[in-house]
Amino acid sequence: MAAVRTSSEIGLNRVAIVAVLVVTIIFLAPIYWIASTAFKPRNLATTIPPTVVFQPEISPFVKLFTKRSQMRSPPTPEEYAAAPWWERVVFDGGEKIVRDGKGQVQWSGYPSRFLNSLIIAITSTVLAVGMGTFTAYGFSRFKVKGEADLLFFILSTRMLPPVVVAIPMFLMYRAVGLNDSHIGLIILYTAFNLSFSVWLMKGFMDEIPKEYEEAALVDGYTRMEAFFKIVLPEAATGIAATAVFCFITAWNEYAFALIMTNRRAQTAPPFIPSQVGSGLPDWTVIAAGTFLFLLPVAIFTFLLRNHLLRGMSFGAIRK
Amino acid sequence: MATTMITTLDRSSRAAARGLSDISIRNLFIIPTVLFLIVFNIFPLIYSLGYSFTDFRASTNAPANFVGLQNYRDLLNDPFVWNNFAITAKYVIVSVAGQLFVGFGVAMLLNRDIPLKGLLTTLLLLPMMLSMAVVGLFWKLLYDPSWGVINYFLGLGNFEWLADPKMALYAVALTDIWMWSPFVMLLSLAGLSAVPKHLYEAAAIDRAGPFYTFFRITLPLVAPILMIAVIFRTMEAFKTFDLAYILTSQPTAELISIRLYKMAFQEWQTGRSCALAYIVLIMVLAITNIYVKYLNKVKER
User: Fold this and answer.
1) What's the whole-number average pLDDT of chain A?
2) Which of A146, A205, A307, B83 lies 20 to 30 A from A140 at CA?
3) Closest in A28, A135, A313 to B33, CB measured
4) Cα dihedral value A135, A140, A142, A143, nearest 10
5) Are the Cβ atoms of B15 and A139 closer than 8 angstroms?
6) CB distance A57 to A36 below 8 Å
7) What whole-number distance in Å separates Cα of residue A275 and Cα of residue A249?
8) Do A298 and B178 count as a contact with CB atoms less than 8 A apart?
């Protein structure tokens, strides 16, 4: 194509470049709007025409992390001067930070929900990718009776709508006391991601030449040693890509978390929407919570973009 | 030569004797995963199959009474449930068609020498990496009739997106299209880059027009991978819960999974909802089967 280039082709290319740029801007606009709202003063969050240029503030994040109440009377100048900067930010909004009897600052629910999300997503990712890697190696290297059927069975576990599985799981968890527990969600997300992990890892394992381990076996390695010392390092890229996909799924999951948790083990996805309530919501605080929650995935996507592109088309083409 | 053969064989067989045999390694690697999936996927399904024949309510301690096929009969005769299925079908068609159109279109634009192509592709992937529930919440603000940015930039005045019964489902589908067109784009790009360049060169020599080239070369060769995108997105759209549940409470946008959730966890009709879950499950399996058969046909061509 590049060999013969007519002027109309070059013109067409320019049009395409402009079109791609426009599409990218449209697709990124909502994300930009979340990010910018997270740094706005409250009164600028819902203005028409929309506020694009403003003095960024950190106050939404202070409000996100603390429990606040309306102030009956404004703080005295001494109180105001003695308060740390983050408390003044809350004073400026006509609120004060709630403290317990000992004067300890009361945290909002957000930090603990964020931590729950981290614990549950990371643990279930490690489990799903670990088991998935072993199983994929098993399928890739050894003869398994009814291999195609077993692999289809593994994939089919992912076809079920979460709500369908959630009803019996809810009853079972209630019976054994796993409701609203970290372990309960970790098991669910591991089961959910495992099928994906097996399929994706099998694609990567098939790419690693069998000769590598065979040479190691001849050198006196056991099969296990060959797997850990030769195959695993070769599969590192695939493991990284699979891990990111599993993490993103577990991190973003909503339906199971909504049904299976209410306080102790609740993750951020059901928590953030529950904060909107019925009155006039403070969109800057919601945007701050959303922004922080999206940040890990956005950073991941960006750092591992090349692996992601490869892993993604891999899994898709093979399925 | 012969002696080295013997020693290597000897060493490897000694190593094998030291470690586990291949068969036990295979079993060790595969059986736990299969068991795990059976316990946490198949067992719950059997459990709920049992409940689907009862009038069990998880909110009371009353014992479950066996009612036979009554739940299934009631559900299949319930016009409201059929309406939920019709809404779901409409949603799946609109959002998958939208994603196919936008995703493939953008892939066609990107499939040429464009500066910063890798960066733009990555940026375009961002929406699908984010949480549907949390992003959906924020789209509520974007859609707001009085201070939403969408109405402002499109000059729509006080247009109601989510509160209008006629519009709500399409508004949800639009957000879904925004989120998942990147997925179709990614698969299409993989498919487009696999089309052999010499076919285009041959077409150029034959002075084939752009339409002929597109419909005779590009589309047929990309069709299988587009089909895969359609399968995946249909399955996912059929399962949609969080996005619609968060964005709107309009009954005209009540997808079957939302109906199922309400029946099970708000009305606490556990037995009945188990039966509905089974009906949904059978439908998903049927749709997937039809698609997979069709995919194999497309691939054979």
Assistant:
1) 87
2) A307
3) A135
4) 110
5) no
6) no
7) 23
8) no
Q: Is the pLDDT of residue B254 over 50?
A: yes
Question: In this complex, do A273 and B134 lie within 8 Å of one another by their Cβ atoms?
Answer: yes
Please give the average per-residue pLDDT across A80-86, as a whole number: 84
By C-alpha distance, which of B122, B185, B178, B131 is closest to B150?
B178
Any idea how long chain A is?
A: 319
CA–CA separation, B266 and B107 (whole Å): 43
pLDDT in the model for residue A133? 96
Side chain identity at residue A299, one-letter code:
I
Q: Considering just the CA atoms, what is the radius of gyration of chain A in Å? A: 26
| Of residues A16, A21, A220, nearest to B112 (C-beta) | A16
Taking the CA of residue A195 and the nearest CA in chain B, the distance in Å comes to 8
Higher pLDDT, residue A276 or B1: A276
- pLDDT tens digits along B147-157: 889 999 898 88
Per the model's pLDDT, the better-predicted residue between B55 and A73 turns out to be B55
Which has more pLDDT, A87 or B252?
Answer: B252
For B66, which DSSP code?
B
| Matching residue, tokens 């690697």 | B29
**How far is CA B77 from its chain centroid?**
28
Contact: B30, A28; criterion CB under 8 Å? no
Q: Which numeric CATH code is attached to A110-313? A: 1.10.3720.10
Q: Where are the beta strands (DSSP E) in B14-169?
A: none
Contacts of residue B202, defined as CB under 8 A and 6 or more positions apart, other chains included, come to none
Does the CB of B111 have a partner CB in chain A at under 8 Å?
A: no
B8 touches chain A (CB under 8 A): yes
Amino acid at B7: T
Neighbouring residues of A308: CB distance < 8 A, sequence distance ≥ 6? A241, A244, A245, A301, B125
Given an 8 Å threshold on Cβ–Cβ distance, is B20 in contact with A4? no
Task: Using a CB–CB cutoff of 8 Å, tell me whether A316 touches chain B.
Answer: yes
Give the chain A residue whose CA is nearest to the CA of B13.
A220
Number of H helices, E strands in chain B: 15, 0
Which pLDDT belongs to residue A164? 81
Looking from the CA of A210 toward its CB, the CA atoms found within 13 Å total 7
ipTM for the assembly: 0.86
Write down the domain spans for chain A: 7-38, 59-97, 110-313
CB atoms closer than 10 angstroms to residue B35: 10
Residues 91-150 of A with CB under 8 A from B: 131-132, 134-135, 137-139, 141-142, 144, 150
Residue B29, min C-alpha distance to chain A (Å): 5
Interface of A with B in 38-57 (CB under 8 A): 46-50
- Tokens 């879904």 correspond to what residue? B176
Query: Within B111-167, where are the H helices?
Result: 117-129, 132-143, 149-154
Cβ–Cβ under 8 Å, residues A269 and A275 = no
What's the pLDDT band for B10 if we cut at 50, 70, 90?
low
Spatial distance between the Cα atoms of B50 and B278, rounded to a whole number of angstroms: 11
Partner-chain contact A27 B51, CB within 8 Å:
no
Above 50 in pLDDT, residue B271?
yes
Q: Show which of residues 158-197 on chain A sit within 8 Å of chain B, judged by CB atoms.
A: 159-172, 174, 187-188, 190-191, 194-195
